[in-house]
């Protein structure tokens, strides 16, 4: 996939800042930088973890005053000799330094190439490498905590413990094959079943965490639903603090789903402003209502908006059904126009989307729909669909092994099913093995250049 002998260069910071960092990594990183860096002494003679002031030169011309940080192999991010050049953030300066580095013998890095070198050097396992991209992309406190836990290896350690237990099981089973003529059982079948049940419970816990992890990573989907003109678009604009959705007193104004994101209490929410639900002969409005129902089906949380001024008796029931795992928040809007005698039940959140009253209570209720206690305590939470698929394969193989145990299958067949569990779990981290190029290309193609 890459050449270990190339020296790669790339900007490690986004364009537009006051300071930019340019990274060089590879066998010739020091010699490469010494061709364009002039300081008190050559970087090739400097100790690791030292910073040196100097100038980037192009012949007799000074391009910029810079700081060069030296990392010596294997004690660097990539495990290779590396230099990070901190320069002024001008796009011209950055492009000139990159031009000089490539002219001196370096080449521009591919997306994710620094991180894949770290992986190949054993600095990171595959799940930790994926967490690097998630850390960069994190847009909320929860998403950052999720990626940080995975990047620190807590997730990998959990999988490694499962793998060790499984290896112990298959070792005992395969030992029986060497004594097959004596009909000896080294793996007590009752103890074996109990161990497999405990492992299955741990795999299930990780799989079950995917709904939380994926929601935090991608944003918790919240459908804002209700009758026409109840104030759904006004609420969306209030939550976003901007006029994103068109607001009108004409019923049926919103005919398509509008999706916008907002960070509330450290959680990213994806709000879906939907068409009002009612009976209509308007073909376009019916299409909008169909999309509303689809959005409700996909949402983790549904805000059912009702009109406070029209409440005279029982709270109206939603015009849609929910899954058991979905959460419902009933919100009575336009409380500023409601009779003073109106008293809402405790479970109904009263707001005025137009005036902004009650929005804080609604945001608190939204925040409570996402349980992040385990996440902030560092517990492993699965957020990657590749990991979820691997855990599902592991669970299926473990179920086959459990069925085989119940049916008194011979040790070699039991061992083969358990080895399938080990293989599936091992594909997540690829510890002790290098993942296939196809998997690596798919993972690292999502990275930005310079990481």
TrEMBL record:
Textual note on the cofactor: Binds 1 potassium ion per subunit.
Gene transcribed to yield this protein: mnmE
Domain annotation TrmE-type G: ranges: 219-371
Pfam family, one: MMR_HSR1
InterPro entries documented for this protein: G_TrmE, GTP-bd, GTP-bd_TrmE_N, GTPase_MnmE, MnmE_dom2, MnmE_helical, P-loop_NTPase, Small_GTP-bd
Protein residues bound to K(+): 229, 248, 250, 253
NCBIfam families: mnmE_trmE_thdF, small_GTP
Protein purpose: Exhibits a very high intrinsic GTPase hydrolysis rate. Involved in the addition of a carboxymethylaminomethyl (cmnm) group at the wobble position (U34) of certain tRNAs, forming tRNA-cmnm(5)s(2)U34.
EC number: 3.6.-.-
Protein's name according to its UniProt entry: tRNA modification GTPase MnmE
Molecular function in Gene Ontology: GTP binding; GTPase activity; identical protein binding; metal ion binding
Family named by the database record: Belongs to the TRAFAC class TrmE-Era-EngA-EngB-Septin-like GTPase superfamily. TrmE GTPase family.
Coiled coil: none
Keyword 4Fe-4S: no
Residues binding GTP: 229-234, 248-254, 273-276
Cofactor(s) listed in the protein's UniProt record: K(+)
Location within or outside the cell: Cytoplasm
Domain of life: Bacteria
Signal peptide start-end: none
Binding positions (Mg(2+)): 233, 254
Class of this enzyme: hydrolase
CC per GO annotation: cytosol
Keywords, in A-Z order: Cytoplasm, GTP-binding, Hydrolase, Magnesium, Metal-binding, Nucleotide-binding, Potassium, tRNA processing
């Amino acid at each position: 996939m890459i050449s270990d002998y190339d020296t790669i260069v790339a900007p490690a910071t986004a364009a537009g800042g006051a300071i930019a960092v340019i990274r060089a990594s590879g066998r010739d990183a020091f010699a490469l930088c010494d061709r364009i860096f002039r300081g008190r002494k050559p970087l090739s003679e400097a100790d690791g973890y030292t910073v040196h002031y100097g100038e980037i030169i192009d012949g007799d011309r000074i391009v910029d005053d810079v700081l060069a940080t030296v990392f010596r192999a294997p004690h660097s991010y990539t495990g290779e000799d590396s230099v990070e050049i901190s320069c002024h953030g001008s796009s011209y300066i950055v492009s000139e330094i990159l031009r000089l580095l490539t002219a001196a013998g370096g080449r521009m890095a591919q997306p994710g190439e620094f991180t894949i070198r770290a992986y190949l050097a054993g600095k990171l396992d595959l799940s930790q490498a994926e967490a690097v991209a998630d850390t960069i992309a994190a847009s909320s406190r929860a998403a950052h905590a999720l990626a940080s836990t995975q990047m620190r290896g807590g997730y990998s350690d959990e999988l490694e413990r499962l793998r060790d237990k499984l290896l112990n099981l298959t070792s005992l089973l395969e030992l029986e094959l060497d004594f097959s003529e004596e009909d000896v059982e080294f793996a007590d079948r009752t103890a074996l079943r109990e161990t497999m049940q405990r492992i299955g419970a741990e795999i299930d816990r990780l799989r079950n965490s995917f709904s939380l992890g994926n929601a935090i990573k991608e944003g918790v989907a919240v459908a804002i639903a209700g009758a026409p003109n109840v104030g759904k678009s006004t609420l969306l604009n209030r939550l976003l603090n901007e006029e994103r959705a068109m607001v009108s007193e004409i019923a049926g104004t919103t005919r398509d789903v509008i999706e916008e994101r907002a960070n509330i209490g450290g959680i990213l929410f994806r709000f879906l402003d939907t068409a009002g639900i009612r009976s209509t002969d308007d073909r376009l409005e019916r299409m909008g209502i169909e999309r509303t129902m689809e959005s409700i089906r996909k949402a983790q949380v549904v805000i059912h908006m009702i009109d406070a001024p029209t409440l005279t008796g029982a709270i109206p029931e939603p015009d849609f059904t929910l899954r058991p795992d979905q959460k419902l928040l009933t919100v009575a809007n336009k409380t500023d126009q409601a009779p003073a005698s109106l008293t809402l039940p405790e479970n109904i959140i009263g707001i005025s989307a137009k005036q902004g009253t009650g929005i804080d209570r609604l945001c608190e209720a939204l925040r409570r729909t996402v349980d992040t206690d385990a996440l902030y305590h560092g517990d492993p939470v699965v957020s990657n669909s590749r990991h979820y698929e691997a855990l599902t394969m592991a669970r299926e193989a473990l179920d086959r092994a459990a069925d085989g145990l119940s049916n008194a299958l011979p040790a070699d067949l039991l061992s083969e099913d358990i080895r399938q569990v080990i293989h599936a779990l091992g594909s997540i981290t690829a510890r002790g093995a290098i993942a296939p190029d196809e998997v690596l290309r798919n993972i690292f193609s999502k990275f930005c250049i310079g990481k």
